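Quick one, tokens below:
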């Protein structure tokens, strides 16, 4: 019986010891003031919670343009250097334009000549013009008549000369044949008729020469007559044109010449304009790839210009957060080059298609920077942004640094100052931002919370004993 009582007492003592340990741990959990230092304190306040989505990206300018010469040539002037500020329309560089200027002048002369031709053609005929045209017809008719008479006289003379030569040749032929017959009758050789034979051959040759001379004379006189006839016809046509006005086809022909001359002039002027590079907008020179005295590059842009009138930020947002983002939401911007400055922006555009990098789906956002605040913000600078997605008003807020989570029980708690002593206090939380958390239960407005150092003993680190061992 004594042994039973003894074991009961021993078990009771052990149970009391175990209970004491757990009671002591509970008290330690409720108050750590004995082993912790208060590092900072804060208040539970009522206000609004701004919820934001963090992201990072780079500064992008409003536009970027690569300027290149459209014509080959030698660079004669480069007026800018890298980082220069330029105005819209300002000349940046120029090629040698001597040949191009001459081409423009030549095109202007051709156009002016075509216009003068049309003006002359369309000018109405005066009485003096008609009288002169009629006089020209009379003169041409007289010249034609003279040519006709000359032609007829020449033809008659040629016919007579040929006929006379032929008659002389016929007579010599008869004399030759008579001489041959007499020599034959007398039994003499033909050599005795050498004189007659020579005369006969000369007469035959004279016929051919006379015919050639006559044909030559006829060709000349006929050519003169034809020229006189064409002059007469031309005079008649000139008078008809003066009386009836300019020909529509001729006018159209000259009009087409004018159009062609205008196009040539425009092309020449375009070529001259293309010999100069001008800034299409106000901006900053980002690159200069040319120098005076060398040929313009064909594979590289001559000058690169940035439009810095507006600055943007290109960022990527994870697909988990993209549903919270909307165009027009305010954005807080921090530039890595100016970490102490807080700039403002607005979500301007959300990409409709995602990017996939290593299996991570994200969407591109474009944030318009409202103002640089006088800071030097350059294209490509790294930035961090907080996109304000929601605002919850009239809620209790506790600083994030005060909120803790028990690693053993997953309980959320803070240290509340009670009579100057930090007391561990469980609480229920809601949404949180990068600075504060909503308190839904556990703390009243105005309560003071503290950040303290926690001390752990071996038993706390090991946790409660396991059952069943």
């Amino acid at each position: 019986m004594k042994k039973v009582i003894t074991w009961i007492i021993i078990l009771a003592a052990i149970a009391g010891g175990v209970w004491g340990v757990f009671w002591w741990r509970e008290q330690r959990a409720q108050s750590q003031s004995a082993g912790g230092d208060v590092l900072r304190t804060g208040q539970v306040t009522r206000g609004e919670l701004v919820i934001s989505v963090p992201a990072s990206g780079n500064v992008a300018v409003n536009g970027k343009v690569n300027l290149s010469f459209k014509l080959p040539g030698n660079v004669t002037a480069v007026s800018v250097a890298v980082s220069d500020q330029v105005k819209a329309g300002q000349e940046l560089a120029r090629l040698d334009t001597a040949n191009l200027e001459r081409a423009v002048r030549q095109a202007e002369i051709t156009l002016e000549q075509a216009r003068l031709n049309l003006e002359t053609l369309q000018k109405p005929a005066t009485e003096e013009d008609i009288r002169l045209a009629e006089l020209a017809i009379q003169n041409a008719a007289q010249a034609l008549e003279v040519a006709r008479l000359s032609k007829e006289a020449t033809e008659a003379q040629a016919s007579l000369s040929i006929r006379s030569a032929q008659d002389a040749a016929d007579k010599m032929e008869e004399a030759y044949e008579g001489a041959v017959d007499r020599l034959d009758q007398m039994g003499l050789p033909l050599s005795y008729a050498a004189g007659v034979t020579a005369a006969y051959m000369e007469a035959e040759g004279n016929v051919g020469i006379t015919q050639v001379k006559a044909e030559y004379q006829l060709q000349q006189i006929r050519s003169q007559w034809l020229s006189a006839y064409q002059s007469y016809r031309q005079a008649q046509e000139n008078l008809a044109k003066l009386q009836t006005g300019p020909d529509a086809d001729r006018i159209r022909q000259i009009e087409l010449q004018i159009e062609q001359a205008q196009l040539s002039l425009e092309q020449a002027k375009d070529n001259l304009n293309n010999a100069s590079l001008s800034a299409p907008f106000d901006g900053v020179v980002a690159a200069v790839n040319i120098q005076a005295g060398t040929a313009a590059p064909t594979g590289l842009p001559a000058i690169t210009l940035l439009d810095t009138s507006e600055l943007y930020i290109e960022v990527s947002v994870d697909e988990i957060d993209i549903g919270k983002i909307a165009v027009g939401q305010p954005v807080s911007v921090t530039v890595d080059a100016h970490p102490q400055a807080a700039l403002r922006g607005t979500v301007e555009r959300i990409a409709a298609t995602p990017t996939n990098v290593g299996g991570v789906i994200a969407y591109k956002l474009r944030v318009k920077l409202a103002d640089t605040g006088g800071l030097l913000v350059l294209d490509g600078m790294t930035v961090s942004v907080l996109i304000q997605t929601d605002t919850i008003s009239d809620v209790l807020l506790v600083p994030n640094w005060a909120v803790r989570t028990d690693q053993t029980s997953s309980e959320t708690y803070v240290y509340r100052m009670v009579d100057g002593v930090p007391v561990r206090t469980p609480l229920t939380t809601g949404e949180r931002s990068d600075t504060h958390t909503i308190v839904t239960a556990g703390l009243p407005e105005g309560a003071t919370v503290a950040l303290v150092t926690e001390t752990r003993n071996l038993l706390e680190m090991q946790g409660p004993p396991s059952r069943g061992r």
